[in-house]
Amino acid sequence: MHIVGRIQWRGIFRGRTSRQLAEAIVSWAFGVVLLGSFIIALIYLNAIWVFLGAVALFIYLLPPLRFRDPFRVPPWELALLISLPEMLYVSRGSRTLADLGDVWRDITSLTNSFGLATLGFLIMAEIEMYTSLRTNRAFSGLFVLLFTMSVAGFSMVAVFISDLVNYPDLVTRTFSPSIGTDYDVMMFFLYTAVGGALMGVIYPLYSKYLTSKRILLFGRTKSGEHREECR
Q1: With 137 labelled, which of 53, 95, 159, 162 sits at a CA distance of 20 to 30 A?
Q2: Is 73 helix (H, G, I), strand (E, B) or coil?
Q3: What stretches of 44-101 show up as alpha helix (H) in DSSP?
């Protein structure tokens, strides 16, 4: 068994260039940041960041788990992009929207919304990198926006249910401890729409920058077919 495992690991690294190794290491480093941020959010029972962290980790780990290849990870710049909101969350502590002042509440809402928008950006990138599906620029931008808004809706439902379970006496028709007032909810959706629209504009530009030669580093050919079949 030990010999077989060693042969499998040798097979994974066989034929890899130093650039592929470096790209994968940097990407996995940001993946570790995602995992650490998720654990911190879980410890503090911050529902919205537990939800965002779980979705981000799932999307990040989907390609390497699907193809059983540690080199099939999102490009490091995408991993950095989805890690930034998580790092901002950790740096500002475990306070929720309702615990902050007006200015910082808006900044927190913007951070949360940016985190949601990056998820839409990443899922669209993975669809085009690891499947044969191709879209035009208008559709890809619209998909990023719609995915962002849909995840925002699910996240608010998850946070509200968490408050009903943990703070049943504090939840009213117009206030929730982790979300704040109705105004806070609408500002969250407004920021999310702006962030999703911004990422929807940036994504087509990024996909144009991501050349076929660089895509080869992550296991996809120019035609969208995989160089290696799933073992």
Answers
A1: 53
A2: coil
A3: 47-67, 76-91
